[in-house]
Amino acid sequence: RSKDGREIIISKNLNLLYDASSKITGGIESFIDVTAEREAMRTIKESEEKYRTLVENINVGVFRVSPDGRFIEANPGFIRIIGGSNRDNVLGSRVKDLFLTKEMLKRVMEELEKEGEIKDYEIPLRRLDHGSVIWVSLTAQLLEHDGEKYIDGIIEDISARRELERRMKYYTEELEHKIRMATAEIRHDKMKLAKAYKDLKELDRLKMEFFSNVSHELKTPLTVIKAHLHFLKSGKLGEITDEMRHSIDVALEEATDLEELVGRILDLSRLDAGRLELNLKMASLKDIVADLVERMRKTAEEKGQKLILEVEDEIPKRLLDPRRMKEVVRNLISNAIKYNPEGTTITIKIYRDSENIILDVTDDGVGIEEDKLEKIFERFYQVDGSSTRSGSGTGIGLSIVKELVELHGGKVTVESEVGLGSTFRVILPIKWDETKGGE
């Protein structure tokens, strides 16, 4: 023990003393404290054991190659990766036996000679057991000892990752090919659709041109027919009976309906050509609606229906084309009368909110199926004529209503439920800049 009570390790040496005749006459004994040296050796040994345990148990392969190109150290991970049956089977084997080609080995050795090390170098190797190819990531360095060169290195089996990358590349290329094919098909279909759309537009133009020409041709004869009917009804050509008067009234009504249809077709052609211009002035929607309700009340009553007008007091004037707005209102009221049965009540209401003048035409009649509502403002679309709806139309009135309202900067909507009736709503902004088409 030392003076402070610590246990120490000492090395004892005895040097004998001799006289002239080589007889031992005595000796000198010396003691050296080697505790620190022994502790250092123990630490080194523990470190080596930890390092060896780590190397023996890690998943990667650790190896050393001798100057003559043979493996002289290898851990179990290396033996497993390259397909060795045991340590003895691997130690002494040649590095070149793992490489697929001489050129590949040459590239690796040239890189090592040039840089002194290589990192994460991905190469294929041939296993020792059955010769199958694996991919590894190689990290190695060139070491010199006693004038000779050794290689220390680590390899990691990346075959699964490379296979995954290969499959991903394959599927990516396959997907890209399918996308290219689909894109080409879509492009082809798009061209076909564009051509079909162009053809439809041309057909629509020809149709509207035909309707316009026919309408112009019909307009004058209708005017003449109505004039002659009125003349006959006046009795100036001789006395007429009640039966004759009734027949003339029916003819006049049919001629008027046909005249209105001709007018709508002409409006459609003008809207399509962008030639329908509004004759705007400050006007009262309230007055337009009140006048039309009075005019159409008799028609409703003849069908056993009731017209009700509800108007708020403070309805401001705004820019309108009175003739075109009258056409909108007439169409909505006329539809409510025409397509609903006897006993229906039709309520026309005008009111406002902070920004808009609103017109509702509401009936408690048969209503419209929900799936028909979104198409009801399309041109030539007709709600199916059935036992629930009386009368049939041309399918152009509501489309004209929609376009005329939009020309006034507004919009038209519809709400309906079968058996409970419908509400057509026209919303017009009070402040409207006609040059912008809206507020």
Layout: helices, strands, pairs:
Elements lengths: L9 E9 L5 E10 L1 H23 L3 E5 L5 E4 L1 H7 L4 H4 L11 H14 L1 E10 L6 E13 L2 E10 L1 H76 L7 H32 L7 E3 L1 H18 L3 E6 L6 E3 L1 H17 L6 E8 L3 E8 L6 H4 L23 H11 L3 E7 L3 E9 L10
Parallel strand pairs: 9-11
Antiparallel strand pairs: 1-2, 3-4, 3-7, 5-6, 6-7, 8-10, 11-12, 12-14, 13-14
Helix pairs in contact: 5-6, 7-8, 8-10
Q: What's the end-to-end separation, in Å?
A: 105 Å
CATH 2nd-level architecture of the largest domain: 2-Layer Sandwich
Integer tally of domains: 4
Number of strands: 14
Protein model, in words:
- By secondary structure, the chain is of the alpha+beta class.
- The protein folds into four domains: 1-57, no CATH class; 58-162, PAS domain (Beta-Lactamase), CATH 3.30.450; 169-252; 277-429, Heat Shock Protein 90, CATH 3.30.565.10.
- The protein is 47% helix and 24% strand.
- The protein contains ten helices and 14 strands.
- The chain has helices spanning 35-57, 76-82, 87-90, 102-115, 159-234, 242-273, 285-302, 322-338, 370-373, 397-407; strands at 10-18, 24-33, 61-65, 71-74, 117-126, 133-145, 148-157, 281-283, 306-311, 318-320, 345-352, 356-363, 411-417, 421-429.
- The strands form four sheets. A five-stranded antiparallel β-sheet has the order 4-3-7-6-5. Strands 9-11-12-14-13 form a five-stranded mixed β-sheet, covered by helices on one side.
- The longest helix has 76 residues, at 159-234.
